[in-house]
Every structure is written in C-alpha cells, then in structure tokens.
Amino acid sequence: MGKTRIWLTLLVFGVVTVLSGCSACEEVKLKAYEKTFFVMDTVVSVQIYTDSEAKANLVLDRVDARMEELEGILSAHLPDSDVAKLDGLGGIEPVPVNSATLAVIGTALDYAQRTGGAFDITLAPVLRLYNFSPGNERRPSQTQLKEALSLVDWQRVELNPEAGTVYLTEAGMNIDLGGVAKGYIIDRCLDILRENGIEFGLTNAGGDIGLLAGKPDGSPWRVGLKNPETPSANFAIIEVSQGAIATSGDYERFFIEGGKRYHHIIDPRTGMPADKVRSVTILAGNAQVADLLSTAVFVMGPEQGLAFVEGLQDVEAVIWDREGRVHWSSGLVRVPGSGSVDYYFRRP
C-alpha cells in the first residue's frame, strides 16, 4: 500500500493480581503485553492486560489488522484511500466512501459548526502550502494564502449517509482528516479490546491516549503534559481512569522566520498559525472528540476555548497560553504538593 509498517516484539513487562468478578473472588494473575505499530505517520502503542500470551497475540493481531484497514481508508497519503479519491473531484461529482469515512467526516462537520469553523477538515489546500521539515521550511505568500483560503469552507461539504457519498461542491477543494482520524482509529482499537474481553488496556498514538479503565489495581493512570518552553520536561500531571486525553502543541513541528514562530496548527479562518496558546490538552469520553477538540480549542484561544469546553459534557481542558499562564476547566481539581511538577490535576 505504499507505506511503511513496523512493529516491535511483543513485550511482557509486568504481572498484577486482581480479583475476578466471580462469587469466590478467585485471584487472577494478569500480565501486561504491549505491541507498537506505525500508523497515520505516528508511533502507536497498544498495551493490554490478560492472563494468556496466546490471547494477547490474537487480540493485538486483530488490532493491527483493523488499524491497517482504517489507515488505508482515512490517510491523505495513500493513493487508494477515500481522502485521495475525493482529491480532484471537487465540483464534479459525489464520491462513494467507506462507512468509517462517513462517520469521521460527520463528526468533523458537527464540531466545525459547533466551534464556528475553528476546526475545519477543508483546510487541506492551505496545509499543503506549508512545510515544516527541517531544511525544507516553507510558508505561503499572501497571494497563495488568499487563493487557498477561498477553498476552505466546511459548509461546502455535502454528506449523504443514505447514498454513502461525500461531495465537495467547489473545484479545487480537498480535505485532511489528520486532526480527527487518529482519534477515531484509537476508539476503534479500544472497541476490539472490549469485544475480545480485555478489561484493562490503553492505546497511545503519539501522545493521544484512549483508555478502557484505570489500572488493574484500581489506581488511575498518570499522564504527563509537556512544558511548551522545555518539551523534555512536564509542567503538569493529570490522573485519568477512562475515556481519552489528547494534546496539541506548537513545539513539535515549527520553524522560526523573522522572529516569528510558524507551526502546524493553522487557524482555518486566517490560514496562519494560531497564536493565542502554546498547548491544549483535552480530556473527553472518546479519543475522536479529544483529538479534534485539542486542535479547535487551540485555535479558539484560552477565553473562548475554555468557555466552549465548559458548555460540553464529559470534556475538560488544560491550556497553556502564549504568556505562559495555565488555565483549566472547572471539572478538574488542582492537587497541592505534587512535587515534581507545578500542576497536578484530578477529577473529583
């Protein structure tokens, strides 16, 4: 399929003892297994707890197959994907797509409307004008930007679930699902774990994490948030027991030109890098929503973004703004005396 797939040896890296749900409360020894893949240009690690190595291999092979299938459908970089099929057919005809594509685009359009266009999958013509690869940095001219922005409008995407088609109504339009597809894939991986009887596990795709539950001993997972000024260090830790957590930051893919930081999180309304915050972390009930909201809230900025999050159920946010101030939503409680980091959050 024109892509590189890598995986590491299945690792057994711990043994825990939990009580089963049976009336005799029989102890069951669970081992932790992990397998790592490369999907959607991201290293993805899947960790599960089970009492059988054979079952671990079976389940993780099923996860691998599902991820490969979804990447082939949703990636903008694979020639046979639905996204590639849509490219070049804007203003010409509706394109039949997979049900997964319909689901992802449907969610993306819903949140485009909710966020006033702060999240917009039709940003692809603008994104193609930037290059953040070291040594090949490039940004668009104002003329290029104006032309590309004329093709950015989520309201010109027509979704027809009954016919199973997507229609981009203007010639030259195309889409990029990079801000939402990774979360969708994480959620589908977790579905496979549940369907195969796995109670404890997680999927980590480049820092976007989906969880089945807390740890087998009942304690929460502790997720570190990178300091945008010093990405090798954490400025906060969040306790998470279920759902998903995703972060968008301006410190991973960027270049400096003329004293200005150009990074990959682009405001669909201006075509320029969003500049009100440095980092946004979202906790949500599923990874797809956490993934896209980390981008949308980054674009919206601390005040508007935090107000938006407060109006959503089962969503929390931590925002580091451009002045270095940290904001967090009301559903998180800051725990004092956390030691190694300045901020330690948990849900009450």
CATH homologous group name of the largest domain: ApbE-like domains
Could you tell me the mean pLDDT?
A: 91
Q: Tell me about the biggest sheet?
A: 9 strands, antiparallel
- Which spans have pLDDT < 50 for at least 5 consecutive residues? 1-26
Order of helices and strands: EEEHHEHHHEEHEEEEEEEEHHEEEE
Please indicate the percent range of residues in DSSP E strands (runs of 2 or more).
Answer: 25-35%
Radius of gyration: 21 Å
CATH domain class name of the largest domain: Alpha Beta
Structural class of the secondary elements? alpha+beta
Please provide the count of β strands. Answer: 18
Summarize the amount of helix as a percent range.
25-40%
Question: Spatial order of the strands in the main sheet?
Answer: 1-2-3-7-8-11-14-15-16
Shape: globular
Number of helices: 8
Number of domains: 3
By CATH, the topology of the largest domain is T-fold
Named at the architecture level, the CATH assignment of the largest domain is Roll
Distance, first to last CA: 46 Å
